[in-house]
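Appendix C: a fully annotated inverse folding record. The material below is reproduced so that readers can follow the format used throughout the book. The structure is listed first as tokens, followed by the designed sequence.
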């Protein structure tokens, strides 16, 4: 980055260095917070969402750097950054659904990390919590009980609410695009925002 920044104006280079430095701090904070939360079956969606929001700094960073290199004003840089953060959160949460479907990943996250977000949401359901807790016993968790776990989580109203929240976030991001970019760039950014939702629909159709 240091070498590449020598070929662009000093003001842009300094701005990009500051952004990268801040992003590294956010990533470190996300790892630290995640380490403190791991192994907790009583974890709330809001607690884990903070980890996800911090991790989503990378797409935000990318969008802001692009806006700076494109000579965008401060408002454009900020708004494109917000769009990047929205995309980052959407894509990370969809990956949480993907992890839920993977038996080995669920076992690993149960033993060494935080549970996948859809499972954390489902655990908030008092009618499901006891049954889910039994299925999550590390010694007895098997591929067959994992299938039962998936069915319970994906059919829960809490996971459905999470899915609907993602759709609303994508729509909000699309609305912000209206006065920000036009033409092919707008179309490409719209596709970017909608891609995680399309993948989520595939997960629910399996």
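Designed amino acids, in order:
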């Amino acid at each position: 980055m240091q070498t590449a920044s020598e070929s662009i104006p000093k003001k842009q280079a300094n701005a990009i260095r500051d952004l990268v430095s801040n992003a590294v701090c956010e990533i470190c904070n996300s790892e630290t917070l995640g380490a403190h939360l791991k192994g907790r079956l009583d974890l709330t969606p809001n607690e884990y969402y903070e980890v996800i929001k911090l991790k989503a700094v990378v797409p935000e960073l990318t969008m802001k750097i692009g806006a700076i290199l494109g000579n965008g004003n401060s408002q454009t840089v900020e708004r494109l950054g917000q769009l990047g953060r929205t995309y980052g959160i959407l894509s990370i949460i969809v990956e949480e659904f993907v992890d839920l479907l993977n038996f080995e990943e669920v076992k690993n996250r149960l033993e060494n990390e935080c549970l996948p977000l859809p499972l954390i949401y489902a655990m908030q359901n008092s009618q499901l919590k006891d049954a889910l807790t039994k299925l999550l016993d590390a010694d007895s968790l098997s591929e067959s009980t994992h299938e039962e776990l998936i069915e319970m989580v994906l059919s829960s109203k809490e996971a459905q609410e999470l899915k609907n929240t993602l759709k609303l976030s994508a729509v909000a991001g699309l609305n912000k695009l209206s006065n920000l970019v036009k033409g092919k760039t707008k179309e490409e950014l719209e596709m970017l925002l909608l891609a995680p939702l399309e993948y989520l629909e595939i997960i629910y159709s399996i």
